[in-house]
Amino acid sequence: MTHLVWFRNDLRTADNAALTAACQSDQPVIACFVLAQEQWRMHDWSPARIRLVIDHANALAEALAKLGIAMHFLEAQRFDDSQDALIRLCRDQSVTTVHFNEEYGVNERRRDKQLAQRLGETDVTVHKYRDQCAVPVGQVLTGQNQPYSVFTPFSRTWRRWLDDQQPTLYPQPAAKGDPVTPSRIDPTTIAGYDQAPPPLVATGEAAAHDRLEEFLADPVAHYKQQRDFPAKDATSLLSPYLASGILSGRQCWAAAQQVPATAANQEGLACWVNEIAWRDFYIHILYHFPRVSMNRAFKPETEALDWNPSTEHFEAWKEGRTGVPIVDAAMRQLNQTGWMHNRLRMITAMYLSKNLFIDWRLGEAYFMSQLVDGFLASNNGGWQWSASTGTDAAPYFRIFNPVTQGERFDPNGDFIRRYVPELAALEGDAVHQPWRSGKLPKGYPRQLVDLKESRKEAIARFQALKEEN
Ligand code: FAD
């Protein structure tokens, strides 16, 4: 009579619905995590993300071992095999109940449904929990009980639900028995682990909470004014923890509630909590509109867009050789660190989908293959927003000019100089338009496309689509 907690995208012991529920029984509890390396490859997991997940799965195994809960690391190449591995573990360990927190990608949902059916045939009970969002999926609906597809009204209902319900956090469970010896994944057996850039954030749940506390203690007060300036490092950098569930959205919301509001921090706090709402919004979209996780556009009519096939331009974009300084600096930040600032994600995504007119799906997959915080719901949502194919999308005619964006959000060019050494010696504004002097710095490429012309062409293609529909 053993309970099993299957950890997936929720690598934490505190505020974890599945773990808390399993520990409420008097029976022994064990845990498992599936190393589905082939599936990770198919889902474009980056080395940075693989390393973060492996390190945190090991840290979780240690934390659980102290609570008397043994972690079993299971090998399975793909989701299909993970069902077999789970069923074997249940049989070998006399498991009667399996607990897990829901995930919302189509493959994940299919896997969980099939597993529940197969376990049911062996008299193992499955309990699943809606734990991924601050407000559980299905709870934020319009007056007509429909899902929202526009962020602002979603966020209003989202905030009202939290104000009304004041959800409490699940405490870290008490020990289930004497400590056990922690099991450990050997990172040398994991493909991609050793190709990761140096870790961006410290490992462990405690480190995530330290960062959250530090951010809310002061930087949050300046968040609204400074968050769009990549050289200022003014955002929380909590996304690696949130994307792998080392920290929950609910914990972020609850921690923000605890901060005494002052005239100085009020705006910043509200603005930051709104970002947690964006995270929930895109998860709710994935849940209600599963097509977005199957390479489909949220706006079906945009699937008729005739994207450029240019592989050369795509390669240049990936490598940060487009000849547009802010785009190149951003792409190099991504390639070197596994992370990119939010403003720059929008600029680079819009440049790829609107100026180069390359299919947003290629950009989405490339981001995923590099990001330490790669998260299907937010990545897809961000790409579809930028490409004007998504829910609350940027109108197709409102296209960022990446040079103007650079001048506005990196006014001194500090960020560009940090990542594009070819431009480091340029003084003042020249760093944003290195072609203006008539001679490009050595090694820096010419622009791939004319920004004005390509913008016009993109608008014309969207316009034509509109007329056809
Ligand atoms: P903060 O500004 O401190 O925000 C706090 C948290 O709120 C973030 O950690 C994140 O969980 C959430 N958040 C903030 N902005 C957004 C947003 N626009 N959409 C959804 N959630 C948000 N975020 C990911 O976590 N994973 C991705 O794969 C991802 N891909 C993106 C792709 C594109 C094209 C775009 C435009 C945005 C993408 N984002 C993604 C959203 C956003 O860029 C990052 O969440 C943010 O840059 C993370 O930095 P931070 O933790 O310092 O954020």
From TrEMBL:
State if Flavoprotein is listed as a keyword. Answer: yes
Q: Give the highest taxon in the source lineage.
A: Bacteria
**Gene3D superfamilies named in the record:** 1.25.40.80, DNA Cyclobutane Dipyrimidine Photolyase, subunit A, domain 3, HUPs
Domain (Photolyase/cryptochrome alpha/beta) ranges: 1-134
| Enzyme Commission code | 4.1.99.3
List the Gene Ontology MF annotations in alphabetical order.
Answer: deoxyribodipyrimidine photo-lyase activity
Identify its protein family.
Answer: Belongs to the DNA photolyase class-1 family.
Instruction: Identify this protein by name.
Output: Deoxyribodipyrimidine photo-lyase
Encoding gene (name): phrB
